Amino acid sequence: MRLTDTYEIEYQHSQRKSVIQNAVLTELVNEEVLPRRALTFRTFNPKEAVELRKLELEPERLEREKDKLHELALKESEERERERERQHELALAQASSRRRDLQALSLESETKLFDVTKHLRLMPAFDEEDPEDFFMQFEKIAKSSQWPEESWVVMIQSVLTGSVRSAFLSLSSEVCRSYELVKEEILKVYEPIPESYSEI
Prior knowledge:
Keywords: Coiled coil. Residues 52-82 form a coiled coil. This protein is mostly helical. It has three domains: 3-44, no CATH class; 59-113; 116-198. 68% of the residues lie in helices and 0% in strands.
């Protein structure tokens, strides 16, 4: 397609080539395809004009390419940072899980290795007159001696006698797994009977 057709430039076939070229040049400048300084050209070569325009646009193209590369590099950097954060969080979670496993294993080992017979000499005698005081003394000794709580029921069982021992033996295995539940059931044995019932 010729430039004269593209920009609808009227010309006569009888006109000289240089006149037509100048008309095309003027139109390209008016359309801002070429810079105004192109009017200073003595002779106009469309191919050279196009090349000139390409050269003028080259810095803009390079700047756009530079911006695209910078944006791409920034996105890649952000993705790498997010990946590092994910890996760090995963490592922390794994470390926390291992720590919990080790703590559970340590507690289990301590419970298995705990020798009840070696600590019986520290047990307070069960006082039927004041069972609450017994439990207070026991818990204080158990905590200060760092006895595993899983062994507390076994420890108090060793000093129970009489009716309270019978009450303990009647408890379900599920209740016997909890020190607090055992303590609650034993204290119930010593709860005072309401007067209304005692008179019957």
